Amino acid sequence: MDEHTPSQGAPILWAGRLEEKPGAGAFAFQSSIMADKRLALEDIQGSRAHVLMLGKEGIISREHTTALDTELARIAEELEAGTLKVDLGAEDIHSFIEGVLTQRLGDTGRMVHAGRSRNDQVATDLRLYLKHEVPRLCGELKETILTLLDRAETYTEALMPGYTHLQRAQPVTLGYHLVAWCTGLARDLGRFTDALARLDECPLGAGALAGSGLPLNREATARSLGFSAPTLNAMDSVADRDFVLELAGAAAITMTHLSRFCEDLVLWASEEFKFIDLAESWSTGSSIMPQKKNPDFAELIRGKAGRTTGNLVCLLTMMKGIPYAYNKDLQEDKEALFDSLDTVRSCLSIFQGMMRTAVFNQDYMERALIGGFLEATDAAEYLVRKGLPFRIAHETVALVVRDCITHGQRSITERPLEELKTRSLLFEADIFQTLKPGSCVAARNGPGGPAPEEVRRQIGILRVKISR
Ligand code: ARG
């Protein structure tokens, strides 16, 4: 049997108006239970706050208030214990909970919806859910940053090539490269935190779009649900889901970061680079090629970034044409947002495992420092320090590099001083020490640079930032 078949138990909340009801297939098509069943506990939490407020304001009697509140608490317990299952034939989680309440309490159950609509209800449920789910995701993000910072700390002196255009560019360190990743992730953390602060207003009491004529106390429900305030405008509260867009955006950006880090890992794990050995437990084999050890986990994270970009585009497109206020299109938001948040969380945890256990091959990284003339910029700066205008220094060193290539020399330091002097008399014997990869890195000790003590400073700043 189709799991969406309209159930006998859960009522259709709008049954009074329509003599003919949608058939089973059509009903299932417009049902949102598969997505919003995860909001069950938040829905109950919201209903309990609403009921207590209705009681306090004298809109329902004290006995009805107690009966409703007690039963709602019981329903939550039963759902958590698994003794009550969400009826997947219900239209949505709101109908399901109200249905159970009504089955058990009769007319008292029918009082719960006074002064509210599913429109403000779902907006409240979703914000409540995000208020505890997003901090969990942030925790995973922090954990990932800490994992990377720990590794970076170990490798502040480990020389490796830095790349632009995937061509060897200048010497850096592995620690520096890992801190570059962390800096992006720390901004992701900020994006999630900012979005959380903005969604911290309670839509309950906004009703369908125009509030309620009943004397609701929106301040009270907002406070009891842990929101900082009720939303300002009822129409905005039910019409806009910009907080969903923001979070889907933050998720897509985080996944774009992870995807790029994974692209680095895939390259580094190749025979061509050999910078990294991913642990066997974080690799997979091939069904036909016996020798293979593939970086599938990194590839999958890179691939899943497509889903989160897709979800963001899906949400923006879904929302762009909706006239104010609520329209059912908005129901499409949850599936996409939940998928994005779930994806980020699982990818962060997989990425952590991979990074914790990866072995870096420092000898291969160091070997890659020879042959690409990564010291050329430092040679130019050497001449600048001796008074040569930078553009002339750049040209001079370019000629030196060409000389080296002509003579089969793989580094400027392989060129004798007399030969260097044919290009500029400013070259002295100290050039050879200056151009060692370690010296190139150590010289870049200004703010933001790769020098070991500067990278240790950056690590310290990030540690403080994420501990807040
Ligand atoms: N499932 C709906 C949603 O997520 C709940 C609100 C339904 N409101 C309505 N007027 N049909 O948006």
Q: Which characteristics define this entry?
A:
two-stranded antiparallel ribbon, 4% strand, Fumarase C, Chain A, domain 2, disordered N terminus, 19 helices, Ribonucleotide Reductase Protein R1, domain 1, binds arginine, Fumarase C, Chain B, domain 1, 468 residues, mainly alpha, two-stranded parallel ribbon
Helix and strand layout, with pairings?
Blueprint: H1 24-30, H2 33-36, H3 40-56, H4 62-81, H5 93-105, H6 118-154, E1 159-164, E2 167-173, H7 174-198, E3 201-202, H8 218-224, E4 229-230, H9 234-239, H10 242-268, E5 276-277, H11 296-320, H12 333-357, E6 359-360, H13 362-367, H14 376-385, H15 390-406, H16 417-421, H17 431-434, H18 437-443, H19 452-467
Parallel strand pairs: 3-4
Antiparallel strand pairs: 1-2, 5-6
Bound molecules: arginine.
Query: What percent of residues adopt helix (DSSP H or I)?
Result: 55-70%
SSE pattern, N- to C-terminal: HHHHHHEEHEHEHHEHHEHHHHHHH
Any idea what the radius of gyration is? 31 Å
| Strand order, sheet with most strands | 1-2
Number of spatially distinct domains: 3
Q: Termini separation (Å)? A: 51 Å
Low-pLDDT ranges: 1-6
Strand content: under 5%
Average pLDDT metric: 94
Using the coordinates above, name the CATH class of the largest domain: Mainly Alpha
Provide a count of the helices: 19
Give every kind of bound small molecule, once each: arginine
Largest sheet: 2 strands, antiparallel
- What is the CATH topology descriptor of the largest domain? Fumarase C, Chain A, domain 2
Number of strands: 6
